[in-house]
Amino acid sequence: MTSLQSEIEQRGRRIFELVDKHPESLFSKAGFYQRLMALSMRDEQLKLQLFRFVDVLPSLHTSGEIIEHLQEYFADAQDSRKLSAFLEAGVRLAGIVPWISGPILRWNVSEMARQFIAGRNPNDVMRTLRKRRTQKIGFTVDLLGEAVVSETEADEYAARYLDLLEGLARETKNWTDPLGKNSELFPGVNLSVKISALYSQINPADPADAVAHLAPKLRPLLRRARELGAFINFDMESYAHKNTTLELFKTVFSEDEFRDWPHVGIVIQAYLRDSEADLRDLIEWGGARGTRFAVRLVKGAYWDYETAKSRQNGWDCPVYLQKPESDANFETLTRLLLENESIVTSAFGSHNVRSIAHAQAFAKELGIDCSRFEFQLLYGMAGPIKGALVEMGYRVREYCPVGELLPGMSYLGNGVLPPSNATINMTTTPPKIQPGAPYENAPLTNFALPENQKKMRAALHEQGRQLGRKVPLTINGEKIWTDKVFSSVNPSQPDQIVGYAAEADIPEAERAIGAARAAFEKWRRTSFEERCQLLERAAEILERRRFELSALEVFEVGKPWAQADGDIAEAIDFCTFYARQIRLIGRPRLTQNVPGEESYQHYWPRGVALVIAPWNFPMAILCGMVSAALVTGNTVIMKPSEQSVIIGAMLMEIYEEAGVPPGVLNFLNGKGSVIGAHMVDHKDVDLIAFTGSREVGLWIWESAGKTREGQRELKRVICEMGGKNAMIVDSDADLDEAIVDSIYSAFGFQGQKCSALSRLIVLEENYDRVMERLLGAAASVRVGNPEEPGIVVGPVIDEAAYRRILDYIEVGKSEATLAYQAKDIPPHGYFIPPTIFTGVKPNMRIAREEIFGPVLSVIKVRDLDEAIDVANGTDYALTGGFFSRSPANIERIKARLEAGNLYINRPCTGAIVGRHPFGGFKMSGGGTKAGGEDYLLNFLIPRVVTENVARHGLAPEKTPEYRDEFL
Ligand code: NAD
Q: What is the pLDDT of residues 319-357, one digit of tens each?
C-alpha cells in the first residue's frame, strides 16, 4: 500500500471515530429530518411526489387547497402505504385525517425546511451563524429566491445581495479567525453569488452579452465586498451557464480594479467531464493574473437535470454517468488544486469521508498547513463530520442558504443537495438503446459549446458574402431561367437582397406537372428501399450543410440561431423518420391467415403531389412534405413560399445531390395566387400537401373538391393551417416556469410559429402576481437582429406582415388595454415591438383572429371551467398549454382542451418529429400529424390483393405475414 493510501485510510478511520463519538442524536430534529429525507430518497416515486408537493405548497393559500393537493398527490394506495412511514415518523402527512389542517402542514414542512435553510433573512440568519461560530464553523451565505425572469427581479436580487453583505459585515465586525493562522486567506464574511439571479436573459450561445450585462451589475457588489473585507464566491449552476460563469469570473477579476483582489472564488464541479480542463485553464489564468484566487471543488448538484436534458436533446452527456468516476475525478482535481497552492486557495465541498481524507492526506504529503485550505459542507447536513473536522484542526465553512422557508424548500428538490449525499442516486446508467428500436432524432446544436458558436459565426460570415445569389427553377432535372426574377430580402435589413429566384408562370407550371406525370410510372416502381436511401442521403447532406443552412435562415427569414438550427434538425428528422416509417409499412402485409387464400394489403402512391409550403419553417415543413411524398412513391412539384425561396432552392440542390431522378422532384418558385392556384385546380395533380394560412387552406380544400375534366383521382388534400393558441395558468402554477415559457412561446421567433401562444388565460386568483412578473419578463426580452446570438425577437417576415400586425395592434388598442409594448427596437427592418394586451374579452378580434406576430392577449377568468370554455372558444385547435401543479386539474385539461398538440407545464412550441406528431383540427387542419406514425398514409392509396392459392383443395400450409413488394 502506498503511503498516501495508508494516510488516507488512517485519516478516514479517525474521522469515523470522531463521528462515532458525537453522533447526530436520533431524537434531534436534524437527525430526524435527515432520516426522513433519506427515507423519501430511497423510493423514487415517493421522492418525486414529496418534492412535487413541497414545491407547490408555497403557492397554496387556503387549508382546503392544501388538503386537496395532498389528496391528489398521495391518494394512490401504494403511496399512502409508503407514507405511513412518515406518519410513524411524526409528520402525519398521509391518509387525510379529519383534524389535519393546512397551517399544521405548512408548519411541518417549514420545520423541515428550517433544517436546511439557515434563516429567512439577514437578521434571522445571524442567530445560526453566531451559534456556528462557537463551534468554530464559518459560513458562506447563499440567497434563495424565485427564478429571476426579468431585469426588475434581477435588480431586486442584486439589492438583496448587497443588503445581506452589509448586514453580515456589520454583525461580524469583531469576529476573529477560528484558527488564528493564515486568516488573511479566509475573510469571515463569505457570500456565494448565482449569476442567473443577476441577469434574466443569459443565453448560453452568447456569453459575451451575459458578461456585458453581468459585469456592471456585479461591480458595485464586488467593490463593496472589497471595502468590507468580504469574500465573493461565484456559484456554479447548470452546465449551460458554466462557460459564461467562468468567462465572467476571468473577465471581471482581470480588470485593473479587481486584479489584485485575492478574496474571490469560483466553483469547479468534479462530475463534469470538462472540469479538469477548466481547472487547468483557471490555474493558468490565475498564474498570469498574479493574485491568488479560490476554488470550491464540489461533485456537482444538477446530475439528474444534466442527464435528462442531454438525453432530451441528443447531446453528449456533460457529466460522468457513474458516481465512482466523479469521485475519482474529485481526487484528481484535489491534487491539481493542492499542487498549485501558491496560486489557488482550495475549498473542498464534499460530505464524502474518503474525498475529505484524501484531500487531508495529499495536503500533508505536500507539506501544506491545514489552515491554508478549508472544507465546505452544506448547512443542516453531516453535522458530526463537521465536528470531527474541527476537532482535527481543519477549517470548516458551512454553505448556508438564506430565504423564505417554504419557497426555499424547492431548492432541495432542484438539485442543490449534492449527489455526494449518499441518498442521491449517481449510478443510474441511461437505458441501452435496443437495435432497431426507438427512433433517434438529430441532436440540436448545443450553442453553449464555444466551437459551435464559432461555426455559426463563420457560417453567418460566409452567408453574408454569398448574398445576392441567383437560383433557377428546376423542371425535369433542367435548370430554367425565366424573364421574371423574384428577389428575397433580409427582413432585418430590407435593403439587403438575400437572393434572386427565377419566377415561374403558368407555362412553367404546366411543364412541371407534365414532367412529374411522366416520371411517375418509373418512380412508383422503384423499391421503397431505394427511395428510403434517397431520403437518408438527403439527411446526411442537410447535416453536413447544417450551419450554412441555419445561417441562411437567419438572413432570409430572420430566425434566431437556435430556432434556425432547430428547423434544419427537424428537416433531417423528417427524412430519417419517414424513411423508417415506410420500411415499417412498405411491404404487403397479410390481412388474415386462412387456409387456401392469401390476402395482402399494401399501398400505392397517389400520383403527382403538389407541395405548397409556408416560410416560417422554411426548410423543415417543405422538406417534411416533400420527403413524405417522395418516399411513398409520388412525384413532386415543390413550391416554397415566395419569402423563403432561396432556402427552398437549397432543398432542391440537396435532393439533386442525393440523386433524385429528373422529373421526380421539380422546383417551382412563383406566386401562390397564380401558379399555386393553377396547379391546385389541375386535373393531373392528385395530391396537395399544403401548410399555410387558413384563408388559402380553405380555398384549396374547396377547390380541390371539384372534379375537373380528365381527372383520374379524387384529390387528396393535406391541409395544415393556423392557430389561436391558448395557455392556461392555474392558480397553483409554478410561475418561475409559467412566465418564462409563456414569454418564449408568445415571442420566440417573433410569434410567427403556427404553434405560438397568443392567448394567455389567467385565473383571477393569481392574476396580479402573474401580470407583475409577465410584464417585467416581457420588458427584459432581447429584440434585435438575429445575426446576434441570444436574440429572442427578430423581425417579422415582410412589409405586408409588418403592416398587418401593426393594424392588429391598433385594433387591440381600441378593444382592450395596452399593458406593455417594447420601446427599444431597431429603427430599420420589420421589427414589431413585443406587445401585451390585458382586459381582453373572448369575443374581441384580437382574441379570435390569428395575428402571427409578437402580440399576446391576456384574458382573466374566474375559474378553470371558464378558462376551458375560453380556450376552446375559437375556430382553431392547434396547440394549447396548461401550467398547474394540481394532478386533478391536469387530468381535466388533458380530457377537455381542444388542441391537436397539448403541452403541460412546458412551452407550447417546439414539436419534435416522432415525439410530438404535429397538427391540429377544427380550422387548424384536417387532422393529419406531420412527424407521426400515420402521416405517410395520407400520401398512399391502400390496396388489397387476394389470391386463391389452393389447387383442387390443396393449400400451402403456411402463409408468410409479409411479402416482397409488388413492383
Ligand atoms: P400563406 O397561406 O400565405 O402561404 C402558404 C403557401 O401558400 C405559400 O407557398 C403561398 O405561396 C401559397 N399560396 C398562397 N395563395 C395560394 C393560392 N391561392 N393557391 C395555392 N397556393 C397559394 O401562409 P404563410 O404566410 O406562408 O404561412 C403562415 C401561415 O401558415 C400561418 O397561418 C400559420 O399558422 C400557418 N402554418 C401552419 C402550420 C401547421 O402545421 N398547422 C405550420 C406552419 C405555418
A: 999 999 999 999 999 999 999 999 999 999 998 999 999
DSSP code of 896?
A: H
Tell me, in angstroms, the distance from the centre of ligand 1 to residue 616's CA: 9
Q: State residue 88's pLDDT score.
A: 42
Distance 617 CA to ligand 1 centre (A): 11
- Minimal-distance CA residue to ligand 1 atom 10: 672
Q: Is the CB of 932 under 6 A from ligand 1?
A: no
**How many residues can be counted in the chain?**
967
266 contacts 236 by C-beta, under 8 angstroms: yes
pLDDT over threshold 90, residue 41: no
| Choice among 65, 720, 787, 788 that is catalytic | 720
Residues 6+ apart with CB under 8 A from 958: none
Q: Is 404 among the catalytic positions?
A: no
Which helix or strand (DSSP H or E) is residue 821 part of? strand 817-821
Amino acid at 524: R
C-alpha cell at 761: 388565460
**pLDDT for position 847:** 98
Q: What are the residues whose beta carbons fall under 8 Å from the beta carbon of 725, sequence distance 6 or more? A: 745, 755, 756, 757, 758, 759, 876, 878, 879, 880, 881, 899, 908
Torsion, CA 525, CA 528, CA 533, CA 534, rounded to 10: 50
Q: Is 398 a catalytic residue?
A: no
Question: Is the distance from the beta carbon of residue 637 to the nearest atom of ligand 1 less than 6 Å?
Answer: no
The rounded radius of gyration (Å) of the Cα atoms in the chain is 32
Q: Is the pLDDT at 630 greater than 80, yes or no? A: yes
Q: Contact at 8 Å (CB) between 543 and 442?
A: yes
Atom of ligand 1 nearest to the CA of 695: 2
Q: Write down the pTM of the prediction.
A: 0.91
Q: Which atom of ligand 1 is nearest to the CA of 918?
A: 40
**pLDDT at 421 > cutoff 70:** no
Q: Does the C-beta of 4 come closer than 6 Å to ligand 1?
A: no
Q: Ligand 1: does its nearest atom lie under 6 Å from the Cβ of 641?
A: yes
Q: What is the pLDDT of residues 146-197, one digit of tens each?
A: 889 999 999 999 999 999 999 999 999 989 999 989 999 999 999 999 999 9
Would you state the cell numbers that stand for residue 207, as one nine-digit string?
Answer: 456569453
Residue 890, CA distances (Å) to 76, 730, 882 in order: 16, 10, 8
How buried is 216 (Cβ within 10 angstroms: 0-12 exposed, 13-18 middle, 19+ buried)? exposed
